[in-house]
Amino acid sequence: MAQMTQDNPMQENMLGTKPIPRLMLQFGIPSIVSMFVNSVYNLVDQVFIGQRVGYLGNAATNVTFPFVTVSMAISLMIAVGTAANCGLNLGRRDQEKADRTMNTGFVLAFAASITLFLLGEILLIPMLKLFGATDLVMPYAIPYARIYIIGVPFTTIGILSSDMIRADGNPSYTMKAMLAGCFFNILFDYIFVFPLNMGVQGAALATILGQLLTMIINLMYLPKMKTLHMRRDYLRLDTGIIPNILAVGFSSFITQAAMLVTQVLLNQQAIRYGAMSEFGAEIPLTVFGIVMKINGLMVSVIMGLVVGSQPVYSYNYGARKYDRVRQLIKTSMIAGTVIGLIGTAMLQLFPQQFISIFGQEDALYNTFAVMAIRTMTILIFILGIQMTAGVYFQAVGKPRHSIIISLSRSLLFMVPLLLIMPKFFGIRGVMMCYPISDLFSVILCSTLLIREMKNLGKE
How many helices (H) and strands (E) does the chain have? Predict the structure, then answer.
């Protein structure tokens, strides 16, 4: 095996020796900020569009979001798989393989992003129809999506470079890069949507410019990496490494792919059962998109804490320090639940205040929005358990368990519920699917995680 780099020996020992709570704060806080800012990207457009264009413009962002999910699925599969394999190799003191893995990941991410961009532009209109765009929404959705798709390479490379920088032990740098991109996204959103009156096109353009800035800042760090190294002779698609990247990252792909199926089905059920209710088709289509973005904002804080611990899991598991792994699992679940309780309380107590950020509409719209946000987010505080389990199994190279967890909330429980519940409860049944699937999923994840902790190190 190649020897561990001596450029930064303190970094080599820190993940295996520093107290777990301090490591969680060191890696978790920047990751929380990064995840939160990433969710803000998805929200900012809707805030400005809602204030200027109205809820049909927001519906356009909702029917475009499934494509965002597709690109995120590919991006996260490559980024998480690359980062986890790099961490495991560093823990095993195999420096050469860690470097080869990172370089292969970048080439793979670039090739995938260009492919996604081309497919998105070619299949734009059929894609939007599949994702639920009605005749009223389509004129807003086409220009928004066409511009947004241009930014796919920026997002894909940006996500991978962020994970590599975290794996290198500098999560605060990725946080600053995300904050810079988010700030300019908000600034450009205001300029393009209000003074320049560019509508949905301006919001999409602001988003991709913010993503471009984040990517550039991240790429500037790569020559300065300490525990991982970019090397020109390693910048190729190494066929011996790609299967390892895809295998470990596949659960992230499945998570996003399952979300895609859920989003498309949710949009279709919103249109179908909304049209049968007093609310009509467009109000549920718009509101469900907004509620899921708000829910994503709250969940991103929990996810940031959990994902930030991924390098700590990988290193300590690779170094066979199983007591530290157990401690990290327990601490992560407790912290995630506490954060989730705070988020749940805010959404339950102040639903109208959250909804009003996205524009003032009539009483019928507001009534539905408040009902939706309270029903769909009531159990998000228990998701810290599910997220801890999913990230742990990914980080230690056990993709089968991680895939089961990834599929549980969306495909295993959510899809059947979305097909059954509305038949009995109409549009309200669509909302009820979310807390029920959250509960079933956490029960399953808890069972797998308890069994894993009992057997940890025995194999």
Answer: 18, 0
